[in-house]
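Form 7-S
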Amino acid sequence: MAATQKGILNKLYIVFVIITLLLIAIVVRLTDIQFTDGEKYRALSEQLTLRNDTIFANKGSVFSDDGSLLATSMSRYEIRMDAFTVEEEVFEKNIRSLSERLSKKFGKTASNWETKIRKARNTKNRYLFITKGLGYNDYMLVKSFPIFNLGMYKGGFIAEQTTVRAHPLGRVAERTIGYDDYRGAPGIEGAFRSNLVGRNGYRLKQKIAKGQWRPINDNNEIEPVNGNDIVTTINVNIQDIAHHSLLRQLEFYEADHGCVVVMETKTGEIKAISNLGRSSNGKYYERLNYAVGESHEPGSAFKVMAFVAALDAGVIDTSTVVDTGDGRYKMYGRYINDSHRGGYGKISAARAIEVSSNIGLARLIEENFGANPQKFIDIIKGMNLNDLLGLPIKGEGKPDIPAPGEKKWSKNALPSMSYGYNLQLTPMQTLTFYNAIANNGEMVKPMFVKEIRTWDKHVESFNKTVINPAICSPETIKKVQEVLKNVVKRGTGQKMYSEDFSMAGKTGTARTEYWKSDWAENKLYISSFTGYFPAENPLYSCIVVIHKPKVQTGFYGADVAGPVFKDIAQKIYTSNHIINKVEDKTPNFKGVQNNFDTYYANSNKEFNSIPNVKGMAAMDAISLLENLGLKVLLEGKGKVIEQSLEEGVKLEKGTIIKIKLA
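Output:
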């Protein structure tokens, strides 16, 4: 009996020791967790229940040359409700009036809204979706509704802000203004992305249910810093003229696509650029940036370049006679044809340009450079025609001008090149050459952006860039300028001639896709006109290129592209804003710059006072005031005539300012 009791006691002792050791191990582990690994586990717990949500900074705005908005960031709000947090008395007293306000604003019956919110309260839904996509004014209105006006903690009001990109001009010049999203980063927005994007902030959120997070504070932990603004060279009025003139012609000729560019002669500033392609339903939109990216055979537009090369080499003069015969001439086993039936016979070199004789240019170039074609190529390349322009906008098409010894070279290469085949240029590259003719030989780089700003502070300016100070001699320039005037007066561009204003330039009609076996039955052409205006002391150069117009309606450059050029020149010339520029001979850039400086100076005086927005368009005023941190309430439509906070009042972010429009 004693032995049995002793055995039991030994077993109990062993169990006791084991339990004691386990307890000691547990205490040690708990102590280790509490003091040694405590920070790690607390951090892990917070990671599972708290997170930082990025608050994306507003991108800088893109402006036209006079300060009009071309692209800007707009705030959009998503509204949710913590239906459980509202006190019972407050909820029951105000739920009906809240439901009525929601019904009036967003539709559905008040009963429907009340049922939805009560159900969310009963199920302890702390993240009930109300609506999304609200602008700032609607957000402020909803925030003032019963219950919601008590804020996040007492009223359960949850608002999450995002930004979207708005383009006041719609899809006009869309490919040039650009964007930076899932579609890529073309145009100015893509090229200057590093300047436009700002510095993101963040907002702390807490997990309240599966997949649901809500802010834990009314304000962001770190406020985002907006990006810089870009001031472009685009003129809204000229852009509108160019876009609609091109669109009308594309629709009339049922063309595949086309582009137009207007460049300021002296500076190279691009004042308008439109690129329109046809969709499957026959509508036109900014599909691709054809002016910058599409290389093609320029056809007769290149005859002027060949003409300049021959004149500057001294192998011909404008009076040099060339025999074009009856309009059909065989060279190296292949026939060259002129569009005029019966031919032009013996004509001067200048007249060959005026009437756009393929035979005339082919014979002039072949007879003077045939023994040494490399000399011709060197002159052409010396005028920078084989060089990329180096535009900031990505996707510039590469010029292709073959030389002897290359794969594309043959006996027919030189005469073919003389009238614009067997080589490729983009419309922008062609225009840059013609602009140099208008600019007395100085070739300047096309320019899309004038300045980078951050509110009232200057960041960086972009000035004229000279590619080539003299593409040829002054004597050659004068001769070519006279010939280009005569193209319009008495040549292929005669239909465009007007006694009211002068123009100079060259028509272009080029076959395209002529290698197809059925081309004879389904002929396709590229119609163009490239030139400048006024013919004396030019202010603007312009190119119009239209691809694949309906042949039955017309396809010659003078008929298809010429009217677009004339319409643009005429409307710019006769508009009151431009008449003063034409009469003064020099654009008032200083005035434009002063207007822009005034806009920014008044917009935010050292970031501490209310700006004067009277006279501004509603969109401009809202964008300016919201970016200063003010809350804007609108009344009416149109331009600002009154503002509740006067200019000079101390600026405090979050302050409400009411503006009246008319």
